[in-house]
Design goal:
With 214 residues, this protein is of the alpha+beta class. It has two domains: 36 residues, no CATH class; 168 residues, no CATH class. The chain is built from five helices and nine strands. The longest helix has 16 residues. The N and C termini lie far apart (65 Å). InterPro entries: Ribosomal_uL3_bac/org-type, Transl_B-barrel_sf. One of its GO terms (cellular component) is mitochondrial large ribosomal subunit. One of its GO terms (molecular function) is structural constituent of ribosome.
Amino acid sequence: MFEVFGGAFIRMTVKLTYREPVRFMGSLNKVLYPWMNRKKPFWVTQEASPYVDEDITSENKTFLEQQRIDSLTSSTSPVITEQPAQVPWKPYVTQRCGLIAIKLGLYPLWTKTGKKIDCTIFQIPDNHAIRYTPPSEIDKYISLLHPRHYWLNNKRPPSWITQKRWGIQLVGAVSADPIEFTSEWCDLFKKAGIPPKRKISRFLVSPDAALKPG
């Protein structure tokens, strides 16, 4: 950086300091947190590698396919044997679970008076409850303790963790063949007795509205 003063050039140096954990890049000020370049947990890698050749014969391959079909159709879910009691909804207390949906698009509808209304169409695939973590054990949730969460590093946990009002309900959607995923990913669904899912999500649910696995 140069400035002209009295007909002479004066050179000025500007010292740039780099601060962790946040930096800005580009004209859009994209925020890059320090954990973005770190290795993700093992359960994030859900797809199996197509380059692994286990030298399986055609007869064994047919047998394994039949075993996968039997495991998908078996009724080992706890929901089938245990029917939960219906709990009435309480305002400002009960927090129920949500759904995982696929947005298909917009569809126009008209009222009797001729007013046009644009409606959003969603497809609800096969949603299953995987597990529920109660509020008393929410501080042991492994993904919340991971350094990828910026607010935990800054010692600023949200109120729903400190007050322990809600738990975490894990829900999965879109069933698929187990051969497409890693063994670690499939282990997430074994205890619930459901097939592996392509998409999982978490919902904040109160203890009185918790869903059993299945």
